[in-house]
Amino acid sequence: MCRLSAITAKDYFSPVENILTLETMKEGHDGSGMGLILKDLGGEFEALKDKPVLSGICSTGGLEMLDTYMDEAGFRLVHQWTPKIKPVRGITARDNYFARFYDYPISTKILNNDEKEALLLHTRLSLRKMGQEDESIIVFSFYPDVITLKEVGDPLELCEFFGLDNSPLKAKIIFAQGRQNTNYAINLYACHPFFIQGFGSMTNGENTAFVPIREFLASRGFPGYIGYNSDSEVFTHILHYAARGLSYPLYYYKDIITPLKPAEIESRSDKEFVGHLKKSLRPLCIDGPNCVIGFTPDGQCFMVQDSKKLRPGVVGGIKGKISLVSEECGLNRAVPGRDTEKDIFPMRYDMVIVSPGAEEVKVWNQLQGWTTTMN
Questions:
Q1: d(CA 30, CA 180)
Q2: Sequence-distant (≥ 6) Cβ neighbours of residue 121 within 8 angstroms
Q3: pLDDT digits (tens, 9 = 90+) for 151-182
Q4: Which of 115, 158, 205, 286 could tie 111 with a disulfide, CB 3.0–4.6 Å?
Q5: Rounded distance, CA 143 to CA 236, Å?
Q6: Cα 124 to Cα 303: distance, rounded to the nearest angstrom
């Protein structure tokens, strides 16, 4: 199993908080890798929220290819962050880790937001393809106000390696995963969290329905539904497809991945739509033990479980700071001064949704509807 640590807050905080939470839950990951996504950036990046950020890793030669491509595409580099690497035994440093902020090409002034996002996606996929064979270019995200950082190693040691305890990196939403290696080879594209066009997610579990889900998504004709070095990446793409492609409210994500039985659907006021949803999107139904934590472009964060609740997960905190984690001990580390009586342990029918800025926590239950648990 892996371990997950997500924090959403009204004030900026350091990813070190997430990493220390992972350390508290260390028995659940083997130190084979860590992934971080920071959304709603602060510090030196706060004035750059409208600039698309390219996050990744390059060899020296790969960086030259990347610069040439970006220059020819019309992107102008305006700011960059690179971690101050400290040698740590057991971690092999690569040539260049970066988060690069760009101005859009001048030609995009006539484009709407959807067209700009399509350009960013195309650029990320093109760079990924360029470096795929020899890993000379690895790109995790290219999107405004988002930074992604991934590497092989123990989370606490990677924190030291990247110098995150003395780093300007801060954000209002940070997701971190401590990885349990279930593959023979470690590929950074298989490391959670995953990201596409403002949507992100990470998972503790395994998805045995991966192949039919992958085939259904691939048939949609959307260029971003590729890769799948991990069977969990489809969770992010299902979220994107439901909310962005089909424009469904967030809570229908739960109905899609863990559909109700026919008799249970009859209790819903929207039973006709839910029944149609189940039939038309049946290939997106997940199978296997899973806890999924995700976020949307507007800053909502959520947690859902598989239909049998076979993986742990808990949500809790105080107004202005909420944590969504794998285990209660992690929550104790993330928000120690909270009222533990208000902690939420979502069950098989539940979807916990935290509003932007961690102002409110609601639970969507597939059978009972909405419940406000914290405001």
A1: 5
A2: 142, 196, 197, 223, 224
A3: 999 999 999 999 999 999 999 999 999 975 55
A4: 115
A5: 15
A6: 28
Cα–Cα distances in angstroms (integers) from residue 12 to residues 30, 41, 82, 169, in the given order: 29, 8, 20, 9
Q: Which spans in 143-209 are helix H?
A: 155-162
Q: Which residue has the tokens 């001048």?
A: 106
| Residue matched to tokens 């028995």 | 27
Encoded tokens for 270: 């929207």
Residue 186 clears pLDDT 80, i.e. is over it? no
DSSP state, residue 242: I
Residue 298: is its pLDDT beyond 60? yes
DSSP per residue over 278-318, as a string? HHHTGGG---S-EEEEEE-TTS-EEEEE-TT--S--EEEEE
The mean pLDDT value for 104-132 works out to 96
Q: Number of helices (H) and strands (E), helices first, in the chain? A: 10, 17
For residue 153, give the DSSP letter: S
| CA gap 360, 27 in Å, rounded | 31
Q: Which residues pair with 323 in a beta bridge?
A: 7, 316
Coil/strand/helix, residue 40: strand
With vertex at residue 73, the alpha carbon angle to CA 72 and CA 75, rounded to the nearest 5 degrees, is 105
Amino acid at position 358, single letter: A
310, 282 contact by CB (below 8 A): no
Task: Report CA 174 to chain centroid distance, whole Å.
Answer: 9
Please report which confidence band the pLDDT of residue 214 belongs to, taking 50, 70 and 90 as the band edges: very high
Q: Is the pLDDT of residue 68 over 80?
A: yes
DSSP state of 344: B
Question: Does the predicted TM-score (pTM) go above 0.85?
Answer: yes
Identity of the amino acid at 321: K
Number of alpha carbons in the 13 Å side-chain half-sphere of residue 49:
11
